Structure formats: structure tokens, C-alpha cells
Amino acid sequence: MALSPSRIEEVRSSFAAQGLMRHFQASLDEIEEGRSVISIPLSEVVTQQHGFFHGGVVGALADTACGYAALSMVPPGKAGLTAEYKINLISPADGDRLVAVGNVLKPGRMLMVCQGDVFIEKNGQRKKCAVALMTLFVMEGLSSI
Q1: CATH number for the domain including 120?
Q2: Domain for residue 66, yes or no?
Q3: What CA–CA distance (Å, rounded) separates 37 from 16?
């Protein structure tokens, strides 16, 4: 099912309110029901000592992509908060842009399970560099922003 324009705006407003994502110069590239795509350009702010994207940035991007995939599916007046996640860093994040794709694997009334696939882009090529599996609590009384 497609998201309504007002729901898309609500999700985009929530994303714009995230200080960490603003600091990383991240953009919410795609949002649809149960799926989001977020990217970060390479900059000094997001690197580790070898010039690769820092593993913490990779994790934060996977977490955020899954969170917004989940938010696209929860009813108004509720939000998804990360309960736990596991991430496998499977390749160095050495490239020009980091892209995370969050997908809801199991929506639920109280818990949602999501997967975050993170890719590195370099010289026009895309390579998976991390995979995360995440559980989110569905919380009442929290606005999306």
C-alpha cells in the first residue's frame, strides 16, 4: 500500500528533526510502506583514521533506515524505538557514499523486526558492507517528530 502524501511529509519532517543525521549530511532518499533508503556523503565528520566511513556511522545509518521503514507502518500517535540490533560489518566502508536500505521483515502491534542492508558506493560501483537485524518497540504517545 502506498503512503499518503501527508504520511510521507510526517516521516520526512521526523527525519529532518534528527540532529545526528543532519550532522552527517544524510538524506532520506526514498520512503514507502515498510522501506526506506538513506544516504550519507563521505566527509571528514564520518570517517575513521584510515579514511573509511566509521563503523559507528554505518551502524547509525542502518538503525535510522530501519527506524524509518518501521515508522512508515505504525499508526499515527505511535513510534518505533530500537530495542536491540546486531550488525555484521562485512567489508570496509571505503567509498564516496554510504547507502542504507531498511526493510520491515515482520510488522507487529508491539514489536517490529527489520533488516538494514548498508552499501558503499565508489567509482559508480555499489558493494554491500554491512547487514543489520533489528527489533523495535512500538510505543504509544510518542510523536514522530
Answers
A1: 3.10.129.10
A2: yes
A3: 14
Which of 139, 5, 119 lies closest to 65, judged by CA? Answer: 119
CA–CA separation, 7 vs 111, rounded Å?
21
Q: Count other C-beta atoms under 10 Å from residue 18's C-beta.
A: 17
Residue 7 three-state SS: helix
Q: What is the Cα–Cα distance from 57 to 37, expressed in whole angstroms?
A: 15
Q: Is residue 51 part of a domain?
A: yes
Local confidence pLDDT in tens for the 145 residues of the chain: 688 898 899 899 999 999 999 999 999 999 999 999 999 999 999 999 999 999 999 999 999 999 999 999 998 888 889 999 999 999 999 999 999 999 999 999 999 999 999 999 999 999 999 999 999 999 987 665 5
